[in-house]
Amino acid sequence: MVPVERSVSRLRVTDVDILQDDLPQRYSRDEQMPLKVVVDSLRSAFNTGALLRSSECFGADEVILCGYTPVPDQTQVARAALGCDKLVKWRYAADVRAVIRELQAAEITCYALETVADAPLVESVEWRFPAALVVGNERFGLDPDVVRLCNGGAVRIRLYGAKNSLNVVSAFSIATYEMRRCFEKLSGGEDANSCG
């Protein structure tokens, strides 16, 4: 594969160019999960694109980009998303607080993914659907008032290292995997609204 990649790179063709056309045939939206992903003020275009890619892979039904989060119209975001920005529904909204209130008015339970000391671990949460998972800035996380606004509360990932912090996309992917596992359990008829 390395010689092929080298040949392609000499032509200035990117992963996005190679994968763009055949993505719609390779991925199905039939297994969509009732999950809104709310992204507040990410700095990195790469992280935004990677988050769109993970959202599509786990079947989220919408990504809402807030604050100064880069949008897929930017080349670096689109490049990192590898075409997933065209497969997952997304929109921009300036104010994350207004978005959370809007979602809650639509009876969507909002969870804040944050390193809050007493928050339940993602694998033990009684996830309720439809749901929204709110993630924040790479360095500062979510504002405390945004966490308090989430009616599902804060959820966290158990960490063991000294840093006690994951990249936002890594953390999002772990949490969304747990949400997907729960959603599939519920879809199997074990419970109508929640699981843990």
Radius of gyration of CA atoms, rounded to a whole number:
17 Å
How many H/I helices? 8
* Major beta-sheet overview: 6 strands, parallel
Give the termini separation.
42 Å
Question: Can you give me a brief rundown of this structure?
Answer:
This protein has 196 residues and is an alpha/beta fold. It has eight helices and eight strands; from the N terminus they run H-H-H-E-H-E-H-E-H-E-E-E-H-E-H-E.
Please specify the SSE layout and strand pairing.
Layout: H1 2-10, H2 15-19, H3 23-26, E1 33-40, H4 45-58, E2 60-66, H5 75-81, E3 90-93, H6 96-105, E4 109-113, E5 127-128, E6 131-135, H7 144-149, E7 154-155, H8 168-187, E8 194-195
Parallel strand pairs: 1-2, 1-6, 2-3, 4-6, 4-7
Antiparallel strand pairs: 5-8
Descriptive overview:
This protein has 196 residues and is of the alpha/beta class. It has a single domain, classed as SPOUT methyltransferase, trefoil knot domain (Alpha/beta knot). The chain has eight helices and eight strands. It has helices spanning 2-10, 15-19, 23-26, 45-58, 75-81, 96-105, 144-149, 168-187; strands at residues 33-40, 60-66, 90-93, 109-113, 127-128, 131-135, 154-155, 194-195. Strand 1, helix 4 (45-58) and strand 2 (60-66) form a beta-alpha-beta unit. Helix 4 (45-58) packs parallel to helix 5 (75-81) and helix 4 runs parallel beside helix 8 (168-187). The radius of gyration is 17 Å and the shape is globular.
